[in-house]
Amino acid sequence: MKETALVIMAAGIGSRFGGGIKQLAPVGPNGEIIMDYSIHDAIEAGFNKVVFIIRKDLEKDFKEIIGGRIAKQIPVIYAYQELDALPEGYFVPEGRKKPWGTGQAVLMIKGLIDCPFLVINADDYYGKEGFKRIHDYMVNEMKDDADVYDICMGGFVLENTLSDNGSVTRGVCHVENGFLKNVTETYDIRRSGDGLAAADEAGNPVSVQADQPVSMNMWGLPVRFLEELEHGFPKFLDGLKPEDIKAEYLLPKIIDDLVQEGKAKVRVLDTPDKWFGVTYQEDKQAVVDAIRGLIRDGVYKEKLFG
Questions:
Q1: SS3 of residue 154 by DSSP
Q2: What is the CATH code of the structural domain delimited by 5-296?
Q3: Rounded to whole angstroms, how far apart are CA atoms 166 and 94?
Q4: Domain segments of the chain: what residues?
Q5: Which parts of 108-158 fold into alpha helices (H)?
Q6: How much is the pTM?
Q7: Cα angle vertex 266, ends 264, 268, to 5°?
């Protein structure tokens, strides 16, 4: 059977989590973190290896808290996203503090794997169904040598991805006949009265609906997509203006551009599962309670890898 890798983006600084490393916050009854549940579900779905994308300064804590334990369950590879991990001839502009976004993060795995891979965020709980559907698609349907990039994504219902403790950013999707037509990064999404409020990148109000499909950065990608990221990163950097000090090279934007150019087709694999994550410090207790509920319902064992 074709091999598949789970790639977990865990280099985020966690600025909205009160300065702590939110990806490593325990939420399970035996100290499990959200990543444990994602990895458990991925192993169950049939993934063969895990790639952690982290920062070098997180490495010691990360390996102690999760990496060493997970390596007993599945082969583990590390990749490192750093601010100065730039193409030859490029330099970090003065005032830039954070790395360059999810596109740069995933580019860091180039040369480390040679199989299709699923990208997820470290601090999001996705549920079991998305892992199963994406794994099965990558093994049975994905074509790595097609002229057009063959991509899939987990499609979540917007209402199932909101936080009770603040606004969120989501890739709002337009889907036709099971394929992604476009994805628009949409900001400041929150409940407002009987509906939802949201804004575009400039802060202007935009309309969103509770039942719209959204991307949660759960992308199934062929390995040659890494070449696209490598070619596109210098072009992104060349297009920056001096005031673009926080601009990011983002997967949803990269994939959307490829779709619009006819260079990629994205199969949207709907999942009914409810997302939860630790975006804000106040979210943690809700996640703890949700995990407890899943254990009571028999979705997970009390001791996850026991």
A1: strand
A2: 3.90.550.10
A3: 31
A4: 5-296
A5: 128-140
A6: 0.91
A7: 175
